[in-house]
From TrEMBL, chains A, B:
Pfam families for the chain: GFO_IDH_MocA
Name of this chain's protein: Gfo/Idh/MocA family oxidoreductase
Ranges for domain Gfo/Idh/MocA-like oxidoreductase N-terminal: 4-114
Length: 311, 311
């Protein structure tokens, strides 16, 4: 079966990741692109500046991949589901938790697949870490996610607005790995959020977690002010071993000092392979756990004002 | 069937509301109280300063009502469920959304009832409002929840700490009515939070909602600085009428200017009647919608610093 898919929102993530992943997978055909700016790849038969026309005109479109900024994802996804299309959602899947819950419900009611993608989860090292941790007690978890916002988000203003998530935009990738690999549910017990004086979103955050195990040391540091080498590491220490380190955002895994996974980036091809499986089985996959932790971090977060940030 | 119930946390809400509601209901027997301060009512056969002793010693206890501050509810509820007790949770049901999701899962796994109570929902006027709104389009919703924190929370420090919810402690009562009565799901589109310079929780909030209906005016104002008359009102205007006003926190309902409900406070007796139904059927009722809106309000909230608040 070849699924006809349309991309809605044709910005950087769609061009860099979704387009090549769809091209490389013989079970998907890129039928259409909807882009407000009128951008288009060569192979899309149909292009639209208004996604509503796409949903209305292309009756045989099977699915859409929604790659817009998060603020408009819910409205688009709702209309796509109501038009009978399956929906793949870039991360974060919506602007709020209530919107995501609504999409889960509509997908269920319409019998359409809703797929929340968390790209950092699609690494072999992450799977191995999860399998290694199963049944063990984690006594130490240290997440260090430090990158240079000027490099990764040059001039982007929406990430600094209220609802733009700030440093949680990359941080949620770390949280999506944590919720996938940890053998027990993880709760946020303390959250310190650093807001630049001139911005409405945090530039750094420190989180303390708990799984209910007494004496465990579980925490995360997110920082968007890291120049020079960038760090996307998760260290995990289990009772009775082993000592594990995931680095490069999940692509490399060391277990007791030995490298057991070190892959080139295969995240989006894996996402589309998973989407195939879900479409074939008609099952949705709505994983709200990473997003819920972000909501919790803001809800119980202590706000500290730090120096203004200039692009 | 008479259910043996234990109260955990015997502060103001337990003494003022749970105790008389249990006393007045012949299907419940107050068997035990666990209070760190050693407080006890006359009729409780057993009293404990440590709830863990209660859970361990009283094998025939059917259920517990958890009336502690929210920060410790999850741990207590988890242990109660694992000890085979049904659980009633005061509002808010946990410190974070992830904790509540965990309790839902454990209740399901242990086949025990988990009941999230939102006391403002248990008013006849709220039920009538919900029934009246079914199938209609709301074009205007204005929530005004203004009270004097010094009167209602004299000297309470935890409400001002990060994770103490601030003005959302009363505001969540309004949200629990909104989510119950509105005929469509409600999303928060904009949130402005006022933090006193010397506090880590908001003293006032303005929320803008959407249900996806274009041009509708849906909003809430919460304020903890209201001296004099206190206001707990919700006005609702439907396309083609009627015009409704819920006041006194849900106890009075006017429809097109006519009072159709004006009850004395029956919230907690109704909560225990509902608990009876759930226990009899073995069904949980985990309604996270009001709590999720609070998480959303903090996550997308814009923070404004206002003048320091002194008790």
């Amino acid at each position: 079966m070849v699924y006809k898919v349309g991309i809605i929102g044709f910005g950087k993530i769609a061009q860099d990741q979704h387009l090549p992943a769809i091209r490389a997978n013989p079970n998907f055909e890129l039928t259409a692109v909807a882009s407000q700016r009128g951008l288009k790849p060569n192979e899309a038969k149909h292009t639209f500046t208004d996604y509503r026309e796409m949903l209305r005109d292309l009756r045989d479109l099977d699915a859409v991949a929604i790659c817009t900024p998060p603020q408009v994802r819910h409205t688009i996804a709702r209309e796509a589901l109501e038009a009978g299309k399956h929906v793949l959602l870039e991360k974060p899947p919506a602007a709020t938790l209530s919107e995501l819950e609504d999409l889960r419900r509509i997908g269920h009611d319409m019998r359409k697949v809703v797929f929340t993608t968390w790209h950092a989860q699609y690494n072999k090292g992450v799977d191995i870490a999860r399998d290694t941790l199963a049944g063990r007690t984690v006594k130490r978890l240290v997440v260090t996610w430090k990158e240079d916002v000027r490099h990764w988000h040059p001039g982007q203003q929406w990430i600094w607005q209220a609802g733009g998530f700030g440093v949680f935009d990359p941080g949620i990738n770390a949280l999506s790995i944590v919720t996938k690999i940890m053998p027990q549910p993880v709760f946020i017990k303390q959250s310190d959020l650093q807001f630049p004086a001139n911005r409405d979103a945090p530039i750094a955050a420190e989180l303390q977690f708990s799984t209910g195990v007494e004496g465990a040391d579980l925490r995360a540091v997110f920082d968007w002010r890291q120049t020079g080498p960038q760090t996307w590491d998760i260290e995990i220490d289990c009772e009775g071993g082993p000592l594990m380190k995931l680095s490069l955002g999940g692509r490399r895994l060391e277990v007791d000092g030995e490298i057991v996974a070190d892959e080139s980036d295969d995240e989006y091809p894996q996402i589309y392979r998973r989407f195939e499986e879900l479409l074939a089985s008609g099952q949705s996959e709505v994983d709200e756990a990473p997003f819920r932790l972000v909501g919790d971090a803001f809800m119980i977060g202590r706000r500290v004002q730090v120096e203004p940030f200039q692009d």
